[in-house]
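Practice set, problem 2.
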Amino acid sequence: MVQAREGRTKTKPAADSPPDPIEEARAIAHRTGLYAGIDLPKYAETSYMPHQSATVTVYRMVEGERRAFSATADYAEYAPGADPQYRDVKPMQWLAECAELLALQKAFPATERLSPVNGGAK
């Protein structure tokens, strides 16, 4: 088992499996030396769905200042094309990772080729 952020654990992927896009995006951001943190996801709720959207803010150093880059992922927008393997096991975590990847794409354009839907490249 590999220790993930915030105390979660996950199994290590097989050597021949494609890289996890959120992990790849985080690595790209860290390699720039400009990654300056992340806020916990914020969820919007409705009476018919407990996790309709997630908003994540990541931070990047820009000209010596810490700048925020936020993105929101709506369940209705991303769920139809998502593989249930990613979406249904932990839907709130999946939605937060979609939003995080979108925010990382804003802050670090080198991550734009990564898709938030099924954990793969566009």
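Problem 2, part (b): a different protein.
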Amino acid sequence: MTLQSDDEVKIDLQGVGTATIDWGDNSPVDSITFKNKYTLERLAHTYAQPAKQTITIIGEGIANFDCIYANLTSLDVSHCPTLKELRCYNNELTTLNVSKNPELTHLLCSNNLLTQLDLSQNANLQDLQCDRNPLKTIDVSNNTALKVLITNSAELTTLDISKNPALATLNCGDNQLTTIDVSKNPALDGLFCNKNQITTLNLSKNPALKNLNCEYNKLTTLDISENSALTTLYSQKNQLSSFVIGDQPKLQYFFIPDNEFSEQALNDIFQSLPANDVKDKSIRYSNNPGADAANKSIIEKKGWTIK
């Protein structure tokens, strides 16, 4: 890997056997013997003066590699087929080739300068966090084991997750999406699609959904009647004028301000909200056309606190 060295660089390794680290500045080569296959080993090196350096790590059994906040400009992991977890976020990487890492399960490469990411050879990938990169597109169709996908602030215009049935957490906020189809993701329990341009959102195939943030979109209606596990909903700053709630025994936070709800629509929502045993239930509905005239006593009698 190549970096623009600062005073000190830190990396974490986990694996089996031994590994050597050449820091690239003619200092003695460091070696490490892994204590066990579960413990990360921290290595640190201080450079005499700032300069572009190339660090070479050699080890046959490296499974986990952390090189975060290291000012990396390039990273080559093509000779590490045993790699399972790679954390290289908060660097200056413009490319990242993981095609030779078939065992990879966790890839955290957020906040770099990546414009493309080929994941076609990473069928075991479970956790992908590639947010805050100018990707514009991401293909996860070959990553059927994926459980976590964090791709917010990536300039995406489309996102296809139809081949990811195990997906439990999706954060695709702050992109340019006009639609998101989650009908093939029955395990989804956290959906964060805020700050896009989404006009419709069908949640009827997501019975496990617990947390929903769809604020700052262009939704006009929302139906959560099939999401009885829901605990938290943020849908402010849309164009909502109707809402189907259904049975919500676990709902605790219900935020719908800055929409288009009339007095009658808000009263209907208040009537539909549960009088459940959940403590500290909170609702916010300000800055709707009918907010001032709505009968807030309906929800207050059910134990809801107006924020």
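Answer key, part (b): The longest strand covers residues 8-16. The longest helix spans residues 263-272.
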